[in-house]
Amino acid sequence: MLRSKIELTVKSFGPASPTNGARRAEATGLGHIISVIIKPAGAAKPSATATLIRAGGLIDTGASDVCIDYRVAVALGLDEIDQQTVGVVGASVPATVYMGILEIPELGFSEIMPLFALKVRRPTHDVLLGRSLLEHFIVTFDGPSGLFHFSRPIVSYDTVEFDE
Predict the structure, then answer these.
(1) Do 151 and 11 touch, CB atoms closer than 8 A?
(2) What one-character-per-residue DSSP string does 105-116 give?
(3) What is the CATH number of the domain that holds 80?
(4) What is the CA radius of gyration of the chain?
(5) Can you give the residue range of the structural domain that contains 82?
(6) For residue 68, what are the β-bridge partners?
(7) Whole-prediction pTM value?
(8) Closest CA to 102 of 111, 94, 93
(9) In a domain, 17, yes or no
(10) How many CB atoms lie within 10 A of CB 99?
């Protein structure tokens, strides 16, 4: 049984980490939703009707990429970079790949990344947050408490270059 709201625990470690703390995320019958912002990576096209779009992003550990409703891409005038066929439950559908900025303020996340635009209407969300986003975090889900935990990996000294 899903609660109407759950706590989303956000923790970061290492250099330049945002403040630790708990956040709230909506839980629907289909999963856990977190607020996201989508923006163009460069200058918006003159035909764009918006400079940014705030939407609900469904956390989906089974999805490979971040997918958006195609109307979001059109409204923002995002730059098209590719056409691909992607698998969805029970089918394959065409997707246009756009380059855009995905921001998740509660996680201190902002990055330019490929966004797969599908013409499949989802009733509860306009953004699907797959592993291309989740790979930036250590993500755990505590089933009994209904808590998602996001943490930033600690920077290893082996990967940091030092001046000698």
Answers:
(1) yes
(2) GGGTEEEEEEEE
(3) 2.40.70.10
(4) 17
(5) 32-142
(6) 117, 127
(7) 0.75
(8) 111
(9) no
(10) 16
Is residue 159, in this structure, part of any structural domain at all? no
* Count: domains in the chain: 1
Which of 2, 5, 4, 6 shows the shortest CA–CA distance to 147? 6
List per-residue pLDDT tens for the chain, 164 residues long: 333 343 454 443 333 334 444 444 545 566 788 899 999 998 767 777 889 999 989 898 889 999 999 999 999 999 999 999 888 778 888 899 999 999 999 888 999 999 999 876 666 678 999 999 999 988 888 777 777 788 887 766 666 666 66
Distance CA 85, CA 92 (A): 6
For 126, the 3-state DSSP assignment is coil
* Residue showing tokens 């470690």: 13
In this structure, the dihedral spanned by the alpha carbons of residues 55, 56, 58 and 64, taken in order and rounded to 10 degrees, is 10
